[in-house]
Amino acid sequence: MPRRYEAQSGAIPSFPMRLGTALRSALRHGYTTRDLRSDLLAGIVVGIVALPLSMALAVASGVAPQHGLYTAIMAGGVIAALGGSMVQVSGPTAAFVVLLAPISARFGLGGLILAGLMAGILLVIMGAARLGGLIQFVPYPVTTGFTAGIAVVIATLQLKDFFGLTVAKMPDHYLGKVGALAAALPTVRWPDLAIGLFTLAVLILWPRVTRKIPGPLIGLGLAGILAAVLGRFVPGFEVATILSRFQDGIPQLPPQPVLPWTLPGPDGRPLVLSFELIRELIPSAFAIAMLGAIESLLSAVVADGMTGGSHDPDAELVAQGVGNIVAPFFGGIAATGALARTATNIRSGARSPLAAIFHSLFVLAAVLLLAPVLNHLPMASLAALLLIVAWNMSEVKHFAHALRVAPRSDVLILLTCFGLTVIFDMVVSVTVGVLLAALLFMRRMAEVSNVRLVSQHPIAKEGVPKDVLIYEVAGPLFFGAAQKAMSALQRVPTGIKVVVLDLASVPVIDATGLVSLESAVSRLGQLGIFVVLGGVQEQPLRVLAKSGLHGHRDHLSVHPGMEEALAVAREVRERTS
Question: Is residue 380 within 8 Å of 164, Cβ to Cβ?
Answer without folding.
Answer: yes
